[in-house]
Specification:
- The protein has 343 residues and is of the alpha/beta class.
- It folds into 2 domains: 179 residues, Rossmann fold (3-Layer(aba) Sandwich), CATH 3.40.50; 151 residues, N-(1-d-carboxylethyl)-l-norvaline Dehydrogenase, domain 2, CATH 1.10.1040.10.
- Helices cover 43% and strands 19% of the residues.
- The protein is built from 14 helices and 12 strands.
- Strands 5-2-1-6-7-8-11-12 form an 8-stranded mixed beta sheet, with helices on both faces. The chain has a 4-stranded mixed beta sheet with strand order 4-3-10-9.
- Helix 1 links the parallel strand 1 and strand 2.
- Helix 7 crosses helix 12 and helix 9 crosses helix 10.
- The longest helix has 21 residues.
- The relative contact order is 0.11.
Length: 343
């Protein structure tokens, strides 16, 4: 059997770390990235991954996004690690270079499965849940805060043909973390959104690492309320409260208890004292973040069902004003985040 040709489309902090693991495991991997300086750094020096206990430098084959049009050999598996809001165009970009039986694996936050399906079809789409923390501020250098032994993923399809490929992808990804096959990937991805809704944007609004943000008075409880609204949205959307992060199954169906459980797991196992969420990293770089694909999605789903989402709505409003330059992120926004005052 011929080894699969693999692309990592979106070789930023998370994509480069996963891609480096795949290369070091002997896989045929092409990195495709839109940050020119990062591509050139990887070409010149390889990708440097700074792990908690070691630093590795791995030579990689890296392409600029504009060079995708020059490709001739199709890919069998594409790991998609672009931002949720970039999903549609990125899949359109790679679709002509996907083998007839090739598959796109959306290793992303947010409910991106349907965006991928819309381009390549359900039989060629796998969704994935990712739980690892990485950052990248300099081209060619990634600080990965969770080693493979401490990283967790789930993969699954919404179509039987795709689901039959999940075990293959699980095996390939096993070098980068613990990988489970989900029999209900929509619910699994909703559960990650439950975790994300509380922590990603709220801590970024406060301009703090997650571990510091939760220690501020009232913030931890507010994050749980955000997650509870997301869990309610998942149920409204037809999903279930299922186990992720390797947690044992629970009988609880209470959205608040479930949100508290997930946030506790993130804080206990997947965050270091200096872990800054991906949203805060985006803002530190002057970039647009995924607040609308995360908290905004919760608001839209609940609004469509006639339910309010006051916590997530407040987060979205503050994040939007920060990105517009109307507010400066920081601890001074805590009262507004908690709904104690207008910003």
């Amino acid at each position: 059997m011929t080894a699969p040709r693999i692309a990592v489309l979106g070789a930023g902090a998370q994509g480069a770390g996963i891609g480096a693991d795949l290369v070091r495991a002997g896989h045929d991997v092409t990195f495709i990235e839109q940050w020119p300086a990062h591509v050139e750094a990887m070409r010149a020096r390889g990708i440097e991954i700074r792990l908690p206990l070691e630093t590795t430098i791995t030579p990689v084959h890296a392409l600029h996004v504009c060079e995708v049009a020059t490709l001739r050999e199709p890919f069998d598996i594409v790991f998609l690690l672009v931002k949720a809001y970039d999903t549609r165009w990125a899949v359109e970009l790679i679709a002509p270079h996907l083998a007839p039986d090739g598959i796109v694996v959306g290793v992303q936050n947010g409910m991106t499965v349907d965006d991928i399906v819309a381009v390549v079809g359900a039989s060629r789409t796998l969704g994935a849940v990712i739980e690892m923390a990485s950052n990248m501020f300099d081209p060619g250098i990634v600080t990965r805060q969770n080693a493979p032994a401490d990283s967790w993923f789930a993969v699954g399809g919404i179509d039987p043909v795709a689901q039959a490929r999940a075990a293959e992808v699980q095996s390939i990804m096993s070098c980068t973390g613990t990988v489970e096959v989900s029999d209900d990937i929509r619910s699994s991805k909703w559960m990650k959104l439950v975790a994300n809704a509380g922590e990603l944007v709220a801590s970024a609004i406060l301009d703090l690492p997650l571990a510091e943000a939760v220690r501020l008075p009232g913030v931890h409880d507010m994050m749980i309320r955000c997650g509870a609204e997301a869990a309610q949205a998942a149920l409204v959307d037809g999903s279930r409260l299922v186990s992720i992060f390797g947690l044992a199954d629970s009988e609880t169906v209470d959205p608040g208890a479930y949100a508290a459980r997930l946030l506790g797991e993130v804080l206990d196992k997947y965050s270091l004292p200096d872990t800054r969420t991906t949203v805060l990293q985006d803002w530190m770089k002057g970039r647009h973040s995924e607040y609308d694909e995360l908290n905004g999605h919760v608001v839209r789903v609940l609004d469509g069902a006639g339910h309010a989402a006051p916590e997530n709505s407040r987060v979205v409003g503050l994040a939007r004003r920060i990105e517009r330059g109307e507010l400066e992120r920081g601890i001074h926004l805590r009262p507004a985040l908690l709904g104690q005052t207008s910003s």
